UniProtKB/TrEMBL annotation:
PANTHER family: S-ADENOSYL-L-METHIONINE-DEPENDENT UROPORPHYRINOGEN III METHYLTRANSFERASE, CHLOROPLASTIC, SIROHEME SYNTHASE-RELATED. The lineage of its organism: Bacteria, Pseudomonadati, Pseudomonadota, Alphaproteobacteria, Rhodospirillales. NCBIfam families: cobA_cysG_Cterm (TIGR01469), PRK06136.1 (NF004790). Belongs to the precorrin methyltransferase family. Pathway: Cofactor biosynthesis; adenosylcobalamin biosynthesis; precorrin-2 from uroporphyrinogen III: step 1/1; Porphyrin-containing compound metabolism; siroheme biosynthesis; precorrin-2 from uroporphyrinogen III: step 1/1. Keywords: Cobalamin biosynthesis, Methyltransferase, Porphyrin biosynthesis, S-adenosyl-L-methionine, Transferase. It comes from Paramagnetospirillum marisnigri. Gene3D superfamilies: Cobalt-precorrin-4 Transmethylase, Domain 1 (3.40.1010.10), Methyltransferase, Cobalt-precorrin-4 Transmethylase, Domain 2 (3.30.950.10). Residues 14-224 form the Tetrapyrrole methylase domain. Its EC number is 2.1.1.107. It holds the Pfam family TP_methylase. This is uroporphyrinogen-III C-methyltransferase.
Length: 261
């Protein structure tokens, strides 16, 4: 469906669509409708294969994924690509894992379109923090255990390590959710303990959350790095630290292919 942009030109419809953490049943109705009517889908590495199968055969698929250290397209190229596709008059879905506006750089793409007069819409997705914890049997808040949640990125900046305010994060009454935090987990654990969070604070890592391949490792702040290493967890993995993780045994409802957590 063609739209008129602020530049006065006709262009295709652009939707930044969050695909959720993996289970296709977690797509919103709007996301599914847009995916099924798209003419071009620009997708990331984290979009699950089950969701990729929902894209019509007639739609062009363009991979813009990023694996750590192996950028397929750099962000500026993705921004330009979206602009060019929109101007070509086709309906474009920019499909990203989780929610586009949570550690997804969706806002950078939206800003680029906005600054070039291209109308777009944003379709929220279930972010890994919500999806992986629900399927991992871990409430983000629970009366008496956590009154709030903090979401932080855990990836190491090239040669610089983590740059986080550990004093703010080491709060025993708040759940800490760390995206992209598997590699840096030993450093994170040491910093949080140094900042005063008790060593025995319950902690979990959830790999491939919400999919049949989900694996969950439960431990403490002190031993989670070693447990995840021993289990051979890989990305994508979400780290959750806080007293709410103590409920994970009782709330373990999700049956995976392996039959357990
Ligand atoms: C670049 S961030 C993208 C986050 C995404 N926009 C969201 O809202 O979930 C990628 C990180 O999200 C987390 N993640 C995303 N999907 C996941 C999944 N299915 N299982 C575990 N972690 C996931 C991992 O920590 C991964 O390294």
């Amino acid at each position: 469906m063609a739209e008129q942009g602020q530049d006065g030109r006709q262009h295709g419809r652009v939707a930044l669509v969050g695909a959720g953490p993996g289970d296709p049943d977690l797509l919103t109705v709007k996301a599914l409708r847009l995916i099924q009517s798209a003419q071009v889908v620009v997708y990331d590495r984290l979009v699950s294969r089950e969701i990729m199968e929902l894209i019509p055969a007639s739609a062009e698929r363009i991979y813009a994924g990023k694996a750590l250290g192996h950028h397929h397209l750099v962000q500026d190229e993705i921004n330009e690509l979206l602009l060019t596709l929109a101007r070509s008059g086709r309906d474009v879905v920019r499909l990203k894992g989780g929610d586009s506006f949570v550690f997804g750089r969706g806002s950078e793409e939206a800003l680029h379109l906005a600054r070039h007069g291209i109308h777009f819409e944003v379709v929220p997705g279930i972010s890994a923090a919500a999806g992986c914890t629900s399927y991992g049997g871990i409430p983000l808040t629970h009366r008496g255990l956590a009154t709030g949640v903090q979401f932080v990125p855990g990836h190491l900046r090239e040669g610089k390590g983590l740059d986080l305010r550990w004093d703010k994060l080491a709060d025993p009454d708040t759940t800490l959710v760390i995206y992209m935090g598997l590699q840096s987990l030993p450093e994170t654990s040491a910093e949080l303990i140094k900042a005063g969070l008790p060593c025995d604070t319950p902690a979990a890592a959830i790999e491939n959350g919400t999919t049949p391949r989900q694996r969950r490792v439960i431990g403490t702040l002190a031993d989670l790095p070693e447990r995840t290493r021993a289990a051979g967890l890989q990305a994508p993995t979400l780290i959750v630290i806080g007293k709410v993780v103590s409920l994970a045994g009782e709330l373990d409802w999700f049956m995976t292919e392996g039959g357990g957590s």
